[in-house]
Structure formats: C-alpha cells, structure tokens
Amino acid sequence: MRYDLVIFDNDGVLVDSEPIANRLLAEYLTELGFPTTIEDSYRDFMGAAAHAVHDVVAERFAGATLPPTFDEDFHARVFAAFQRQLTPVAGAAELLRLVRAAGIPYCVASSAHHEWIRTAHRKTGLDVFFGDAQLFSAQDVGRGKPAPDLFLHAARQMGVEPGRCVVLEDSPLGVQAANAAGMDVFGYAALTPKERLAAATGLFDDLSAVPQLLGLD
C-alpha cells in the first residue's frame, strides 16, 4: 500500500538517542533516591511523554515527587551528552531522502519536547529534512502516547486522513497509540523485543527494509 503520510517517531527510529537518554534517566533517578536500572527505564519510559516519569515515581515510591526542576535538569544532562555522543540511526538519512524523493509527505511525531527534537536533529544533520511544520510533540496535545492524540494531531495538521497514514515506531506505547489512531504501524525491533511490538502491522529490524514496507522498492 502506498501511504499519503509517513509519520516517524524520532528517538530510536531516526536518532540513536534511546541508549543515552535511558542510561542518564536511570542514573539521575537513582541519584535522587529512586533506584532505577536502565532496563527499568526502557520498560517504563521508552516512548512515553515526560510526565510519565513523575507518574511512575509517585506510584512506585508511595507518592514521592521529583524536584521542580527535574525535567529541565534532565534535559540539560541529555543535551550535553547528545553533543558528545548522538548519532543518527544507521540508514535514517537515506530513508528520509528516498521518501522525500518519492513525493510522499512525512513528519515526526515524538513524545519528546520540541527543543529535544530540534537539538537531536541539529546534532545529527537530520534538520535538513524537516521544517517546523513537520515536527509534532506531545507538548502540542497534552496527552502523549499511548493516547492517539499526537498522531491524530499530526495527520490533521498535515491534511491526511488517519487511515492513509503509516507510523514507524520502536516502542510498545507508540504502536498502541498508532493502532488507537486507526493507522498502520511498522515496529522497529532494534532495541525492543519483537514480542513487545506484536500489535504492529509489521516488523523490521533495519531501516533498509522500510522502503519495501512503504511500497517504494
């Protein structure tokens, strides 16, 4: 099927940020007295909006709260690490170039804040593929994944019916959100075990497989 809009998740699909962000998040929460492993972080927070960290800490640690500046401090740590370590996912630029050349509209819909998305794109050189009108964040809708709001907002702003959209996602929350939005979704099983993405329309483990899934080969 040829789609009218390709919606990319950002972290883990276009930029290789998940190992960096989840390691730093686990370290920071542990430092604050909330013991968290990187495996915990992947399981509980991958693909989730920022408020999920506060919600999980409150639930797991008897109503505990994080410092008022937690989000800003965490983002500062991540952005500093991005400058040293962040790279694009292998094949991301080539895939974006192919989708653009095929004339298929595309965008990013990410649980991360706009500043996070732009910082990651500038560092990896992927900013050349995206204008502001192609970047959508959970900030824009209030409810992040697994709610469908973000994907529906992106489709509406891009002028495409949900049933004509396809989402590329690497998290179970993202797959759940795409399904709830009535969109096809292909799960990127690189960091996430395939069984956790079983609800996706299809699976891939390398971006080089995506053109065939999109009918572009």
TrEMBL record:
GO terms for molecular function: hydrolase activity. It holds the Pfam family Hydrolase. The keyword Membrane does not apply. The keyword RNA-binding does not apply. SUPFAM superfamilies: HAD-like. Keywords: Hydrolase, Magnesium, Metal-binding. Its cofactor is Mg(2+). CDD domains: HAD_BPGM_like. Belongs to the HAD-like hydrolase superfamily. CbbY/CbbZ/Gph/YieH family. This is HAD family hydrolase. It comes from Streptacidiphilus monticola.
